[in-house]
Protein 1
Amino acid sequence: MFCILFVLFLFIYHPVCGVFQKLYCSLSESCECDFKPNIKDLEWDLYKNVYGQHLAQDIVSEEVSKFLNNKSPDRPLVLSFHGSSGTGKTLVSSMLGNHLYGSAMSSPYIHQFFVRTKHPSLCLQEELKNWVQGNLTECARSVFIFDEMEKMPSGLVDVLEPFLGPSHVVFRTNYRKAIYIFISTTGEEVINKVTLENRQAGQDREEIKSADLQEAIAQTAYSNSTSGFFLSSIIPQKLITRFVPFLPLSRRHVERCVHSELCQRGSCGRSDVVEAVGGDMIYTPVQGQYFSTTGCKAVPAKINFFL
Ligand SMILES: *[C@@H]1O[C@H](CO)[C@@H](O)[C@H](O)[C@H]1NC(C)=O
Ligand SMILES: *[C@@H]1O[C@H](CO)[C@@H](O)[C@H](O)[C@H]1NC(C)=O
């Protein structure tokens, strides 16, 4: 017995023994692919390196730790990220990948899906279904990231419905251990409006509550024909665990992005560049100039210009 354990131990920890690991995984319930979640590191990264997004920080840490601490979740974790471009949606999705798997975002169990066609086809639906099902059969602890949902043809996402619900077990696979992340700009109008009203009322940004936005984002996703979830039963069935709003960034946040990027390039001390890039962004609305229209998106390019 000891000998077998020892041999298995070698198989699991020896990277060249991928084939044996696969064999072991198919025989064992306990082996979870490359899954090595570090929730503390994820939280630290979220709170230290994402600027101006208290809702995303709180919701993502809370939901991920709740989900991973549950040994047999009754449904997968489904998060939908919403907000204007440059507010940190992609950044947060990579942080998740980075702290869940041994090989970070290059893990073979993190899958990113981009669709750039507006023409839904049965073929595409079948492909998407097989892709999710096939990968879940290989590894129940898979992460699926659907970026730019607003470019996804309406109706396509519906093939995911059976995977997102509570009761699916196919083959030996437990579908309920997967994590799905949807990313889109849908709902940016309502998120930006709530943030603007908060600012104009002179309140703290942190006073904006997640509950203030959940229903509004769900409604927009359901009723806007370019959301990727247009008239999808995924919304009324409440298969999305939480909507994660990303708020528009003010100059102070943009400057933190600039500072952090400069530090990564070894030029931490260049406050002149921080100031110049911060001053070079476009801010809305005209009255007040509160929020950067492009968030932190153009920061690296502008640094190249001013450095
Ligand atoms: C799993 O996903 C990868 C891309 O992430 C894809 O290339 C592969 O075909 C998928 N596997 C199955 C069995 O569908
Ligand atoms: C749907 O969303 C797009 C992109 O966010 C927006 O431009 C458009 O005004 C929205 N349509 C409606 C009817 O709200």
Protein 2
Amino acid sequence: MRRINLSTMPVNASSQPLYAAPAKSPKPESGRTHQINMPTTTARMVKTDRREDLRQRFCEVRNVTLRLTESLSAEDQMLQSMPDASPVKWHLAHTTWFFETFLLLPHIPSYKPFDARFQFLFNSYYKQVGAHPQRGSRGLMSRPSLGSVHDYRRHVDAAVIDRLKQASDGEWDLVELGLNHEQQHQELILTDIKHALWSSPLPAEIHGAAIEPASSTPRSWLHFEGGIREVGHAANGFAFDNETPRHEVLLRPFQLASRCVTNAEYLAFMTDGGYRRPELWLSDGWDRACTEHWDSPLYWNCADDGAWRCFTRAGLKPVEPAEPVCHVSYFEADAFARWAGVRLPTEEEWEVAAGSEPLTGTLLDDGTLHPQPSKGEGLTQMIGDVWEWTASPYAAYPGFRPAKGALGEYNGKFMCNQFVLRGGSCCTPASHIRPTYRNFFPPHARWQFTGIRLANDAS
Ligand SMILES: [Fe+2]
């Protein structure tokens, strides 16, 4: 029997860190969208620095993506276990397609595509670019081979690096967008292959050594004053369009839990009939839970001895009480909060709270690919470990305008029937996350590293 074991996932496959330390510290929040009255020589230096950073990051990010896949066979990389999840091979090709479609083809008249058919094949959803395959059919792409997709990446990488010698400001912006896009797909590679390997009829083996008992800091409630506050991105540095414009919101005083909900707390909800009590659930959530027979978070499994185990990159392991509960839907997060007598935070409350302290947590760069127990004082796990469901529907900020053209389809057209998640997870690259970052998924989604932080009205 072939051993299914993700412990050899690429983060451990090399002694090199996934990401090198940034060449310089990120710029502090300035509250302004542009520096003004900057001396010309300084402006030129800043521009040169940014270009050098991006050139370096291009090689680094493209390389990290490959490293995330290097322990997987070609067969593994073709798997599509459900329409929401894509094959690893498709992610490798699609992130390459993004650079080819938005940077190379429009800006280099002499550019020769690696294969003209890939324009259709690896388009995800950009209707203004042209037709694309149905999302659920990505697992049918036995052709092109994985080797061809690697060749495609090399072809595009060489063309991009060559173009960077003479790229305009607008083209550098496209490179930056393409790199952030690729980092989003790095996390999707990990979540999608996890689901695919969990779905395999071959049972995953329990991975060797006993789990070290870990403790979590006790939960406390942190108080935040109400009033008119600002949220949204307004700093130097990259942000997606959905994080803008920065704007004022009126908040009532609120409390936020110092850490995420743990497995032990979630087990108490389950033991108290959490999955059998319709009064705790939103109607759509109850219907979904009944239809799909939910009785625990995704990837949990109750063994014959009555103990809960969960599927991780290291195979099945006992559910660790102190770890944050993970792979729960919005519906489960909402039901848990109702059972606990409190609520989920709004995204504005989350962001205002996040601005109050230095943020730490487990990210992709740490290499665990698994959320870790809370440590330390104050607000913990705000960045990394698990994406935190908020009570906020994913909608446009006041004054939001999507970009013109096909790239306007990146975020804006998904502002319907989804909820905002904040903070990143153990599979999010450290250089990709920030307090204003707005992730979004439908309320039934469970295969991302999604967890729960509680909030409450201040008394
Ligand atoms: Fe994409």
Protein 3
Amino acid sequence: MVPQSLPPSRMAPLGLLLGLLMASCFTVCLSRQNPNEFALINSEKSSTKESERKETKAEEDLDTEVLEVFHPTQDWQALQPGQAVPAGSHVRLNLQTGAREVKLQYEDKFRNNLKGLKKGKRLDINTNTYTSQDLKSALAKFKEGTEVEGSKEDKARQAEVKRFFRPIEELKKEFDELNVVIETDMQIMVRLINKFNSSSSSLEEKIAALFDLEYYVHQMDNAQDLLSFGGLQVVINGLNSTEPLVKEYAAFVLGAAFSSNPKVQVEAVEGGALQKLLVILATEQPLTAKKKVLFALCSLLRHFPYAQQQFLKLGGLQVLRDLVQEKSTEVLAVRVVTLLYDLVTEKMFAEEEAELTRDTSPEKLHQYRQVHLLPGLREQGWCEITAHLLALPEHDAREKVLQTLGALMATCRDLYHQDPQLRRTLTNLQAEYQALAALELQEGEDEGYFRELLASIHSLLKELR
Ligand SMILES: *[C@@H]1O[C@H](CO)[C@@H](O)[C@H](O)[C@H]1NC(C)=O
Ligand SMILES: *[C@@H]1O[C@H](CO)[C@@H](O)[C@H](O)[C@H]1NC(C)=O
């Protein structure tokens, strides 16, 4: 593969697109018309003789090789070099083959565009370019299983996206160059790490490098490649930066890299990531930085009992307790409780699984058995902290807290028995959710959300009787 020759600012989103396509599970719609097709689509400007004359000098240079006009159909067809495209056609770059493909737009639009062409007007060129942020949020939505299109929020988002117009000349040039040179993910990551690691890069450049890097390391292989050339350690060291933003975005990258990636998780613990993450959570830092650090901590601890052990040894439960009791960071409480709930149930499942399968990997179970999580939680006051969080007004926060109370019940039962406030709160919530569940039922929802919350309240009250 030919090394990259595009400036990084341009390559990043394109490389991103390529990566997105290669992660074959991912199809996001960048066009209103084809919700299931992933492609960069724009209404190509007219390249026919008539309008060509009106184009600028630069565009004429691009069009000098135009020999024939391509006739698009309803299906995507590859565009040959030198072929011109009628106005109003859809053009996309097939990122797997590198070919440009063309098809007809909707019939009426096509005709409208032809009309515009006859009047000799310069056509409205609707070229949306997407920033990596836009694609990431699309990816996030995709992961959540929500529709990319449709909601009010999406419309607003799309309107925002539309503001990122770029001239067609620029876009075209980019596409043409992309046909020849495509950078591998590894090359991109090396370039981004070098950018981040270089003392001559500005803070903005470093943040931008981390921001782009985060996308790549979602892929397991990429995260392991990052490890292989020392990039992971560079990012881990970024947690030591005096710049809160560097800490924040380093944690952002690490959170993605750790996620269900044991090899990377092991190296990160060896590389001191756990300690650095806890130091950030325990010291005065902006909330945004702590949020991402907490996220990175979660993905480092999940399914990794060794890291969980180290976390307990390093006083992680105290750090998290202080975090949720601090006025400025108490909004993180639900996330913290969710993490603790996940760790408790993970250990439980490991035990159950070992029992069911008559133990296929004793080592794993052995590891989990050394994570003395529940006694630590009780010791560090998490029984009470969790009970108090039931006062939160949001349903989903309460849902998490109720779940966690259930998971802590065996450990905290005597404390909860002696807590009249907890019973009162639960009784009040019971009344509230009975009303909501009744409404839900009226609307024909017989397996509704509130009914579920009500069921967990019932079972907690039963345990406390
Ligand atoms: C990062 O920079 C340091 C010093 O500037 C250098 O020693 C190290 O090799 C660099 N790491 C990577 C992975 O490029
Ligand atoms: C990073 O910070 C930790 C504590 O905050 C310190 O122990 C460690 O030496 C620092 N590492 C580097 C490479 O500066």
Protein 4
Amino acid sequence: MDGIGKQKLPNLYDALSDETLEAVETLSEKQPTTMRDVRDIKESILNANPPPFTSQLPRQDNSGEEADTRNPFENLKQPANSRVKQVWAIGGGKGGVGKSLIASSLAITLARNGNKVVAIDLDLGGANLHTTLGVDLPKQTLSDFFAKRVPNLEACSTPTGLKNLEIISGAQDSVNVANLKFAQKVKLLESLREIDADYLIIDLGAGTTFNTLDFFLYADVGLITLLPEPTSIENAYRFIKSAYFRRLRLAKHLSPIRNLIEVAMDAKNGLGIKSPSDLFREVNKSSPEAGLRLKEEIDKFKPKLLLNQARTQTDVDIGFSVKTVCKKYFGIEMDYVGYLDYDSAVGQAVRRKRPLVTEFPNCN
Ligand SMILES: Nc1ncnc2c1ncn2[C@@H]1O[C@H](COP(=O)(O)OP(=O)(O)OP(=O)(O)O)[C@@H](O)[C@H]1O
Ligand SMILES: [Mg+2]
């Protein structure tokens, strides 16, 4: 880590979170640190956004107070006889990490195995899942659903040309995650399990807006994608932490300690709570019973992690480092499900507007 020591870059270094630094340090211990690695890491630290450990979620990202304070899961109506077995959401803090590619590959694979699958593009600000699935923009999109031009969500489901697989394409107009109204979000969540499918695969947009976090938390399985780059690792942590706090904040049975959770979300809080494990300690101190409930809620949060564009064993190991750091600082048991190699076939498939797994069935 020569050249990026604390003394040399005090302000920037201090601005970075402990866990990001630890991950970067773990990595640089593992790999033979060449000058290029040092430059890359230094570069990414220099270009880092303000403190990644700031759990205070950015106000400008949200549709006002409403998105922040109201709980979309409270009183959420669910159809009694839903066919849906599982909802998957593919997220990750950063843009361009392969969320859409993985969502479409997963959807195609499940469909090929005989399941009826609907892939849903909830990247409301930059919908392009149809492109990774190799279809033209469907006539009906979520814009029609939000504008009530269609009777229900199912009416937006369009065949992809691939057996068992349909798509609900993202909104193509000014409706986006930043201005999706609370009531629209609830209506959308309530409608999801009315869809006639075994699996719903949700492709999320980048960032940590409350709407994106809520879609992620709604899913039965949340998959976080990251690239083996410090900036991506940092954004993945930010995403995990934001989703984690959002979940705790919305949990009904944690309402007695909601104030404390909110205090903890302010990175500059006077109680010195800097990490979710600090929060746990603080809660436990005043009420072991509340601590137990908090622990139960933490234990239920088990996002999966997938590393994309691996080129070396060191890249693959990043998944393990992230898992270790999440356990240590958040108390979260991440499930590192595996990695995808970097493969130039991906770029070719995207340029040809063809799904990767149909265009190159034998690619890694
Ligand atoms: N395993 C891979 N090997 C090579 N290139 C890849 C791989 N995965 C993704 N890419 C490249 O990264 C690009 C971005 O992928 P994708 O659009 O799936 O990311 P995203 O996370 O959905 O981005 P956004 O946040 O902008 O929606 C793709 O166009 C593709 O060229
Ligand atoms: Mg995408």
